[in-house]
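Q: What structure does this chain adopt?
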Amino acid sequence: MLTKRNLRKEQKKRLAEVSRAKQLYEENIQTLLVDFFASQRFRVISYFADALEVELGFLSEVATLQLYYPRIVDVQNRVLQFVLPQSWEKGPYGIRQPTGSVYLEPRQADWIIVPALAFNGQGFRLGRGGGYYDRALQSVRQEKLIGVLWLQDLLLDFSPDDHDICIAKLISNDGVLNFV
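A:
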């Protein structure tokens, strides 16, 4: 079995290849997510996607959602806050992050969409290796955590570390996969 570091490298290559067809995949994922969130008002923690992640900007058009986004507030200790954006700025690592004065504790969110390079067959997340989300979401119930990938065949075989978070649902072009 490859190490998580080597899996990240391999997965980035695979995701770059998938990204050629991602527009079609993302349209299907958008439909699934809009249908999922359309019935009620929800406070949702989302993320601003990069080229290796599913684009979620369309969620801002869903009237029933109040969206919060991660802001790195302490690089050394790897601490995130989740902010209702008033504007955007470039943060550490060149990642776009919100500015604003309204914050949401992760436990108070109705749903949290977590970014990932991949998930394994049990729903554990393979992130970028910094541990920001693992730390921020450690006390959140798994039932609130949603992952998105272009294709379910991007699931990888890896053993999670003790601190890795596990999602409840994976939404992809292939449909919804439930882990709980």
